Amino acid sequence: MSSTRFKCLRREGATSQYCCVPLCDISSRCNSVISFHTFPLDMEIRKKWIHSIRRADYIITPNSRVCSRHFKSDDLIEPSTPTGRRLLKKGAVPTLFEWNNFATSTPRRTGVWQRREVSPPQNEDPLPMEFQQPEHDYCSSPVPAAVDLSLDRTEELQKEVERLKKQVEELSVHHSFCLGRFAASDDDIRFFTRFMTYSHLMAFWRLIEPATNRMVRVTRAKGATKSGEVGATGNASGHSLPPIDEFFLFMVHLSLGLTQRDLAQRFNIHQSTVSRIITTWANFLYTLLGSVRIWMSEEMVKAHMPKEFQDYPDTQVIIDCTELRCQTPSSLLLQSEVFSSYKSHCTFKGLIGMAPHGAVTFISSLYAGSVSDKELLKQSGIVPLLKPNMAIMVDKGFLVDDCVPCKVYRPAFLSKREQMSADEVRKTQSIARLRVHVERLIRRVKQHKLFDTVIPLSITGSINQLYTVACLLVNYQNGPLVKAWATD
User: Fold this and answer.
1) Is residue 96 within 8 Å of residue 103, measured between CB atoms?
2) pLDDT surpasses 50 at 30
3) Best CATH choice for the domain 298-485 from the list 3.30.420.10, 3.40.50.300, 3.90.1150.10, 3.30.40.10
């Protein structure tokens, strides 16, 4: 090759173009002497170009260029003006390359530097393989080199990939807040969901899972209203949690009373998504579990009657009231409605009924805390379920004998007397020992910490559903109130 070197002059502000010929490092940022030419549209001539520059697998793009250094001077048409564009003659093919010892001097514009003849190619021998790799193609992604692996090595790598995938999945579950993370610990399951064990929880999930396909979601219901579709079901778009983890989120909210912001950070989702999931599952479980009849017939109650009730064999239900403390409303009228003189605070009040063997058999709606026990009993809807041959067991504050058509078992009270008779004392103690179990049942409901705190007014729209679901879940989450009452 000639000892003369081509000097590149940098052009400020020029648009960068690059030559795609291997071993050529010319770009349009050097100077205006070099011109860059696109590949011809004629497929035959284009094939000759690709063959000539020795890039058989090259993918041509609109930005692919070949600089004028690789063309003979006879193939170039000089512009008629200094600012004109240099063109190629029709059918011109690049033939001057470094591997065939082309002259290092580059064809130049007339009047800028002295023109010198480019020596014709002297050697057409194939370029060695190591020189056929693209060095600086900025227009397309480099083709990865093929890796020659033996069959054994390939199988070994595949096993390694599978092992790493499994490890990544395990780490993902371990670091994410989901049901799978706590599946191995029954204590954690008890803490987060109030279900006794993980297997107990999964048994309940298998009962409700088939119905989740028909779940009406809050977001989907709103979308259906806007589009005129009624009864839209199924998963709404954009949900990032699987159904079982949505159920787990709802149970964590119910069991621990965590705020929506806390849950959003734990489950790594948006706070508004948490709100929609809670409302959706509250309505879903309220409808699904509420469709199961929990009021028991006389025959079934007697079939499961514990021997401790032998003195009261006709007892159908043990009833009591419970109050949930709520936020004080700003309206004085509302304050007077929900203020409970018994709790000295604003409350929601509900009535709950328990069968003698410990199952929840009646749940009323929540009422304002100012309502009396007697009025709550009348409005709850339990009276029409009672028959003359039945009996109910109540606390001594329930003076409801004139409201129900059946017998009432109630502890005696003094009522202006100095003391009770011996029979009254024995009867009071006997009823108190049996009636105390309804207090234990209510305590199980309030183990859901959402109801053990001050309920914000912002969730009053769904508090009735949440309370009813918590009461119904007691029949599924726990064992019998008394182990001796367990039945097959």
Assistant:
1) yes
2) yes
3) 3.30.420.10
